[in-house]
């Protein structure tokens, strides 16, 4: 772990690389904190995004409050020059109206938003300048290389080839010369090599004798590249529209594919579907990605088998036979199809049936061997066994409330956008009363994004709290837009379980936490007792008052240890109420009430004893249990 000075040095270095045009002051304080200050841009939020990861703040796992000792805080302080402040206030006056300068609450919000906008415009201008500079430099280099002329001479006396240029050739040409065996002669100022048929052809090409052929190949490559460049994601989607629509809209089919090795291709096509529907100009999916994903799926025997089980003659089939069936049944089944489509769109989390896949094709004895191999790619019971009816009911209610709230905000946003398009510019100029209209549109857009994040967070917190596991919420939030469904969130959570159930994942995390806390301390196993040296630390502040208490940091270790002991004894991942009270008493008690023998009276564990030197003794009811705990929870294979 880095000390405060090393951390400050790292922060200073990263800020210099990230914002080369700004001078930062990074200072260490005696309190163990770091102060970062600067003038004008970048914005405070941009700097906090960089320095926040260097903070080291420990919190109590039970109460959530900040623990004393060992914390490292990083504070940011931004100041504005009078010139820049006046520029921002002028923009606030033009965009929001004079009233925002007089109302302090509105002023700070408008000032920060305007500063952020000006900073983004500054970055875009800087990026455009860099791009223009690169393009100019590239054009100059291309022009220079176009003017480069090479001539070759056959040295009959030495049986060699000598190549000269009218100016310095590019690095690419020099590398080609070296690859073909040519070396630079400082004395004669030529590139020379022994004469061979291949080198002679290469020299002729450089001299321009193969120029026409090279230009034809270049023009053909440029034409092909231009054709590929102009093909949009929408074009690729339209080519395979029926297949992509099937994968994106058939939830049950989509979920089944996601439990196989075909998941990456399914994700690409689903993202392409949403990007085209939303007319997203900044999609990360390219047309070539769509073609590659479709080809991979169509060439997969597993995909074709699953597709035949889910697809019907009335939905998403490209074949002529399916089209004929669709036309014949259209007049009869139009009402039924309408109901099925509505159910598919508005269903939250469809319940997984016992036989989610139609396995009739397994009855064919000729294909049984192939099908058995395909079973390795599908976990038919994963979601069914992981998500209980109680979980499903709770999450369905969450999604229902999310959809209803999102609909209200989106309707409100649409109304504001229509008003702004109709009257916004007029009122911004002539009437200060309506100058907030533009800001309100931006606020609603932010609220909608926060609503999506909160929806994902609530589902993640539900499983985190219930099953005592950690979930990478940020990766899920950054991956999806407001169209995210609870089914997609659950699929991401299940993927993070790495094949374990929720209970198994919690058990693994409890074991890993204890192994991490004991990896650097001396552990002794003898008979039915395990001793952990220096496991606890004494609160040095309380000692001066004659009180011996464990430190706040050690309190977190106590929680980890008791969780591991209770898991080992009962298999439960959450502490019982009795043990919770016992752990809390360790935090607020002192002297002999802490550093003594605590009887636990469990099936496998008899007692635990704390010493003032930081040692902990755990007494088990038998030596067998002591060795078993040491092996499974402390990663000690050999025990005395």
From TrEMBL:
Comp. bias (Low complexity): 330-339
Natural source organism: Anoxybacillus flavithermus
Record key words, sorted: Coiled coil
Name of the molecule in the record: Large polyvalent protein associated domain-containing protein
Domain Large polyvalent protein associated: 2-59
Coiled-coil ranges (or none): 112-143
Pfam family name, one: LPD29
Biased composition (Basic and acidic residues): 315-329
InterPro entries, alphabetized: LPD29 (IPR041311)
Region described as Disordered: 315-339
């Amino acid at each position: 772990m880095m000390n405060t000075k090393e951390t400050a040095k790292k922060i200073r270095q990263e800020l210099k690389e990230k914002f080369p045009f700004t001078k930062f002051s990074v200072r260490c304080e005696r309190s163990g904190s770091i102060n970062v200050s600067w003038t004008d841009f970048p914005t405070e939020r941009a700097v906090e995004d960089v320095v926040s990861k260097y903070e080291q703040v420990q919190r109590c796992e039970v109460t959530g409050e900040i623990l004393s000792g060992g914390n490292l805080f990083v504070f940011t302080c931004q100041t504005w020059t009078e010139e820049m402040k006046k520029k921002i206030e002028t923009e606030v006056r033009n965009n929001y109206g004079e009233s925002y300068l007089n109302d302090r609450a509105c002023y700070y919000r408008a000032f920060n938003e305007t500063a952020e906008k000006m900073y983004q415009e500054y970055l875009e201008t800087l990026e455009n300048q860099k791009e223009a500079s690169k393009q100019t430099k590239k054009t100059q280099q291309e022009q220079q290389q176009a003017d480069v002329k090479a001539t070759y001479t056959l040295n009959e006396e030495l049986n060699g080839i000598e190549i000269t240029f009218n100016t310095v050739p590019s690095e690419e040409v020099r590398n080609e010369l070296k690859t073909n065996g040519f070396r630079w002669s400082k004395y004669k100022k030529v590139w020379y090599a022994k004469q061979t048929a291949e080198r002679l052809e290469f020299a002729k090409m450089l001299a321009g004798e193969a120029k026409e052929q090279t230009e034809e190949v270049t023009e053909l490559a440029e034409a092909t590249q231009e054709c590929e460049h102009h093909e949009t994601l929408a074009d690729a989607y339209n080519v395979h529209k029926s297949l992509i629509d099937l994968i994106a809209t058939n939830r049950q089919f989509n979920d089944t594919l996601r439990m196989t090795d075909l998941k990456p291709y399914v994700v690409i096509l689903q993202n392409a579907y949403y990007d085209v529907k939303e007319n997203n100009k900044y999609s990360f999916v390219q047309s070539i990605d769509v073609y590659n994903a479709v080809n991979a799926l169509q060439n997969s025997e597993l995909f074709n088998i699953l597709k035949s089980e889910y697809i019907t003659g009335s939905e998403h089939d490209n074949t002529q036979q399916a089209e004929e069936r669709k036309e014949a049944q259209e007049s009869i089944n139009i009402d039924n199809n309408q109901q099925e489509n509505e159910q598919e769109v508005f269903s939250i989390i469809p319940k997984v049936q016992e036989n989610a896949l139609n396995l009739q094709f397994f009855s064919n004895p000729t294909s049984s061997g192939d099908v058995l191999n395909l079973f390795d790619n599908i976990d038919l019971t994963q979601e069914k066994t992981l998500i209980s009816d109680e979980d499903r009911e709770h999450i369905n209610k969450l999604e229902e409330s999310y959809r209803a709230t999102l609909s209200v905000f989106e309707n409100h946003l649409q109304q504001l956008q229509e008003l702004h398009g109709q009257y916004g510019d007029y009122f911004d100029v002539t009437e200060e009363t309506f100058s907030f209209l533009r800001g309100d549109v931006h606020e609603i857009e932010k609220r909608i994004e926060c609503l999506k994040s909160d929806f994902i967070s609530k589902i993640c917190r539900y499983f985190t709290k219930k099953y005592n596991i950690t979930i990478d919420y940020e990766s899920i939030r950054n991956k999806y837009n407001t169209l995210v469904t609870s089914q997609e969130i659950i699929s991401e959570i299940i993927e993070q379980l790495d094949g374990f159930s929720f209970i198994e994942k919690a058990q693994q995390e409890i074991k890993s936490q204890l192994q991490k806390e004991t990896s650097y301390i001396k552990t002794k196993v003898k008979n039915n007792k395990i001793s952990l040296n220096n496991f606890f630390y004494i609160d040095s502040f309380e000692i001066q008052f004659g009180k011996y208490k464990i430190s706040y940091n050690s309190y977190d270790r106590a929680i980890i240890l008791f969780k591991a002991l209770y898991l080992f004894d009962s298999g439960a991942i959450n502490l019982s109420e009795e043990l919770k009270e016992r752990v809390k008493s360790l935090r607020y008690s002192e002297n002999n009430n802490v550093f003594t023998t605590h009887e636990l009276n469990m099936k496998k564990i008899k007692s635990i004893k704390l010493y003032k030197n930081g040692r902990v003794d755990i007494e088990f009811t038998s030596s067998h249990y002591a060795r078993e705990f040491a092996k499974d929870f402390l990663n000690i294979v050999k025990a005395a």
